[in-house]
Amino acid sequence: MRLAELSRLSGVSTATIKYYLREGLLPPGRQVNATTAEYDEGHVRRLRLVRALIQVGRVPVAAAKEVLAHVDDDSLGRTIRLGAALWALPQDPAPDEEDPAVVTARAEVDRLLRMLGWETARELSVLSPVHRSLVVAVAALRRLGYDWDAELMAPYARLMHQVAERDLDFLETHASEAERVETAVAAAVLFEPVLRALHRLAQEEESARRYGIV
Amino acid sequence: MRLAELSRLSGVSTATIKYYLREGLLPPGRQVNATTAEYDEGHVRRLRLVRALIQVGRVPVAAAKEVLAHVDDDSLGRTIRLGAALWALPQDPAPDEEDPAVVTARAEVDRLLRMLGWETARELSVLSPVHRSLVVAVAALRRLGYDWDAELMAPYARLMHQVAERDLDFLETHASEAERVETAVAAAVLFEPVLRALHRLAQEEESARRYGIV
Question: What is the ipTM metric for this complex?
Fold first, then answer.
């Protein structure tokens, strides 16, 4: 398809598509002559992902380029490719390791991972920005005097593991590895608000069931 | 206790406490003479909540005041009191009802709630900003071409209902109704990052189990 058709199908203006092409966020089309290029389904899919990252996820262009470089790197194993793409998303800054709340939070997270038998999460803990985010979030709770510990978190972690199993089952319905990584990244940005809203709605429903509406 | 002790216990400076008192975010202490007031455990707890809202949740002062007014209103039934406090937190703007993605998203959310038998969530759907957030989040997915429908969301909603049951079980371990509402509000602001991090960590763990690390 030509540029105009790509714009129509994706709902992205031709000016914005040209900008994405210049920035290397979208691979060039197949040049058919000096002024015309052909685009395909892969371009439509990639545009969708770029919009998810930049317009919805508000990921800076430089970070989006890094994410996409990992999505495209088929020399990597699946876990690393997925991880690298997700890890390139904007992350929490490193916590202050002198802060007693951070020290306790890190110890509780480590105890949690042992309780759950999440061996990889423990092995990757030095590298993974997700592990860091958990420490930061637990430290924020503890700093305000809420004593969240491994025992309190464990049942939530087990439920979130069931959610993660569904996530990966869903990814496996996609045919190609590139589509899987793309979907994983889009889900990280777009699906989290859905999950958060479902959680809050479930709280309202359960509260009404237990205590009535008025 | 005196102001200095309240400051030490809560880790909030006396200047900030005085600001919160002036703004009505913290109820006045019991005046013992013209220049001295006594504070109690309730003030320590309330300061913790105010910090959670303003410093961690970045809730504007005016919105925080509204949240706290509902927390303090013991004329309300529990579901409404909890709901009113949570609904006063900053919420998504109303979606554009002319947008076809919003129309479809709303229909899918309605179908989901029927499938699940979440009757209260359906009854409150016109009022609830949580319901609106779900429509907005699903519309964002659909606008980018990801066809999330009721069938895909239902298993996630069921898991989130199990999470909500734990949330309420945990609230019920608190003695007083005021503490329960306070904890619910703090959890909405502080616990969501923990849940999100647990979800992502579970994804890494499950991905490594299925596909190996390299």
Answer: 0.84
